[in-house]
Design goal:
33% strand, globular, 6-stranded antiparallel beta sheet, 4-stranded antiparallel beta sheet, alpha+beta, 10 strands, 189 residues, Rieske Iron-sulfur Protein
Length: 189
């Protein structure tokens, strides 16, 4: 028969465990709800528009930023591999929403992602997890995390979040200009 102090210690231990689990869960919800913050790149990336003439075409680029003051090593240069894709055809006008740019590094274990223009080429096991997709996707070849082409959202695999994003800041008659990146990229890369 357990004595009263052992029972009290177990209840206290269980109560602390439940409290910590709730705290962890609520922090995760808060992190998912918070608005993304973008920071300026050291210099904008300019991708020729001719390289993105039709929807479903992607081009790799390398961006340069500076780690923010809140980073472990602030004010340090950071190079980030990215990919920009034209997600929609235009009506003749050039709109920033026709182009999306993401970090080309999987947030799971930092493998370079591939752009899969033809989703019918995806492994059947990947399709079984995410369902049939008609649009191009990003695929991490290391552990099969899959991300949408339009915003880099996670569709499946072990990654716990979508791809980090860049912001297209301008589109001219000749180029797509990428001028900002999600702050977390500069903190963690």
């Amino acid at each position: 028969m357990p004595n009263g102090s052992n029972t009290l210690a177990r209840r206290r231990f269980l109560g602390h465990g439940i409290g910590l689990a709730f705290l962890g869960f609520s922090r995760r919800l808060w992190a998912q709800r918070r608005r993304l913050r973008y920071l300026l790149l050291s210099r904008p990336v300019v991708v020729p528009l001719a390289n993105l003439a039709t929807p479903g075409r992607a081009r790799r680029f390398v961006a340069q930023g500076v780690s923010p003051e809140s980073a472990a090593n602030p004010n340090q240069p950071v190079r980030v591999n990215g990919m920009v894709v034209r997600v929609a055809a235009g009506d003749g006008s050039l709109d920033r929403d026709q182009f999306k740019a993401v970090c080309a590094v999987c947030p799971h274990e930092q493998c370079e992602v591939d752009f899969v223009a033809d989703p019918s080429e995806l492994d059947p096991l990947v399709v079984a997890e995410i369902g049939k997709v008609d649009d191009p996707v990003y695929l991490c070849p290391c552990h099969n995390s899959v991300f949408s082409v339009d915003e880099g959202q996670r569709l499946g695999g072990p990654a716990t979040r979508g791809l980090y994003r860049f912001r297209v800041t301008a589109v001219t008659d000749s180029a797509v200009v990428i001028g900002e990146v999600e702050e977390d990229v500069l903190l963690f890369f």
